[in-house]
Fold:
Amino acid sequence: MPDPATDQFDQLVAPHLRMLLRVAYRLVRNSSDAQDLVQETCIAVCENPAGIGAAEYPVRWLLNVLNRRFIDRGRRQKRSPLVRLEEAEAAAPLVCGLPGPEESLLRLDAEGALVRAYLKLEDDQRTLLVLRAEGHDLTEIEAITGLPKEVLRARLHRARRSLARHLDELSGESQTALRGGRRS
Amino acid sequence: MNCSDIAETLDNRIVAQLNAAERRDIQVHIASCAGCARDWELHAAFGALSDMCEPGGFTAECRAMVASAANANRSQRVRRRLVLIGGFAAFAAAAAMLATTWRAPESKPVAAEQEPVSLIPAGGDAISVAAEVEKPEPALTSAAQVEAAIPVPAPEKFTVLVQPLVNEGADAISRASINAMYAAVLRELEAIPGARLIDANAMGAGDLTANYQITVRGGAGTGAGSFSAHVTGQKRGPDGRMQGAAATSTIAAPPCPAPATSKPGDCHSPASLASRAIEHIRATLFPFDLAAQHLLQAKLLDTQRGLDERLGALSVLAGRSATAGTTNEVFSDPAVVRSAIELATSHADESRRAHVWRTLRSVHHPALLQPLIAAAMQGAEREVQQEAVVTLAGFAEDPRARDALQTLARADSRPLVRALAQRGLSGEAYWNQYVAASLKDTTRTDAERIEAFLYHAVGKGPSVESAKTASPQALRDVLDDDAIKSLALLLPRASAGKRPENNRIGLVLVNVASAIDHPAISEMLLENLMTGTDGNLWMSVAAAVVSFRGNDPALRATLQKIATEDPDPTQREAAERILQQPERSGRVLPGKD
Structure:
């Protein structure tokens, strides 16, 4: 017997699932969290199919729902005493202070450093950088986030500055740790 | 280029879509500005961060989650309803007790008021009643159940190396249109399930193995603001060499008139042209798998989408299933057929409605029969009628279709419709004879003489670039010597004019002139090269002829003369270009002498 909810999923969400998963992963940089985020988005959309059904641009609608879920998760995590593993690793130096070979490689890995710097950004800054990386222009981002273009320009600028600053800080930490490692 | 321009580019543009000049300007600026260089580098690095692969069965998992959440919601709703029923029952029971103690025991009306309570069986609790009131479907709990519920495999993954745009537009407007079309090509490619794009300009792209390659080359059109373009896809071997035939979509875009005066079908946006080009490449080149098929079906059924978008999905679905030999399977779904009929009957543009019937040519679902007969029997919409007649011929075994075809063959007012209906009844031999005979019939008007041949040579698509030209063999099958001579007389007369129909005749000219090596065709070409009213059209025909049978000394001499003596510098340049182009091999067809 056909189920309206799964029919809605097939028609409204499934065609965009790959894109949603890619954006979610870019937002959270963690496979499990990305899958959870997408599943929450699917459920939210299918509970209110009229919204996306009436939307002129279904992709923007989906991204709007995804983004709201992402921001909500961030707020919940801030209220929670639990700290995400990646954030804990990025924020706190290793207890021994002497990185092993694997950790040294990770710290030297440019992508790893960029991801760590990115994870230090505010959630709304992450959203903007990810939507730009996905190729959305300001008009589309305005429609997805509800923020006016001038605000978006300013926040994008600040997001890039913050990303560069965090990256420089991490690079400095890495150099210090490596120098410390060699000395010992 | 200054810092604001860089910021604007980073905020609002897609770097992969910048043209060579813009890239150069940016490189010049960031070479001297450390801040912008850092922003640029970070933007590129962030965009290039690795993505996660979709885990196997993720779609099924999401679907199961949605089903499970919906069931949970239904149960909650039922529980809420039961609380109400239970509350009402308790209230009614209390009322009954009160009535029993307060009123005489034989009182009947109270029993009637208690009727709702009787819904709850003796000793039953609220939840057990829920099962009676509404039985929620069980949630999919096992992987096997999920797989059974959604037999859609993940799309086949493949990589596409996208070469940078070659933009040789003649003016700023056409160059901008070509840029916009290229951007739309990238978006279309990115939206294809399973496709992963590789920018050929990206660092290390040369080391990656790509399954396919896409090139887009835009050039001058026939006038200011117009452009032409070739979007070509080809399969690549593991060694990077091209394999098999290329799938090329040639676009000839006239300048669009102002929106207020534009008519559907006359003017296409760069995005719609790109969409059609990629549809063609998807239909003929890229992998066809069930996942892509389901996505296309979902797009076709989605009534929230525009009719053109759904029509595009139908075209790709029909094209891909025909290539894969799965047409009957794909169109066995009544919902898909219903959607196609809806498009064929409700689209505002007649040529689009006709295109739907053409698209359904190899589909034999019984639900199509009555709408097809209705479309074929009406005479007001000529294009819809003739396409419906040809598609109806596929049902000729059915007595109702046969009756309709016989009526049309006997009594329709248009010779072409009568001939197409008779073709459905008698077969291709009749049709080939009819095409040749009508070309030679001097008692008819030019238009009547050539219309069957035009229909045979170029099946009209929703736009010129999607028209299907007949193979050289198909031309050869219908043309004898006298028919070729008649054609050489009729084609130049039919092609004179600026109507959209003339573009189609231009395609026929190119096809005929390059495929048929006959003195009458050569004479026609030479004469019109020197004196024809539409120099661009005849130059295109000459280019095709040189390309496919460039050893014609008379044609080369004529082109040489134009290249040196023509007063129009554009024509001189065009002739020079044609003379320099390499000769291809292959499609020469001698006339039947």
Confidence is low (pLDDT under 50) at residues 80-108, 177-184 of chain A. The CA atoms of residues 78 and 134 of chain A lie 27 Å apart. DSSP finds eleven helices and no strands in chain A. Chain A touches chain B through 51 residues (CB under 8 Å).
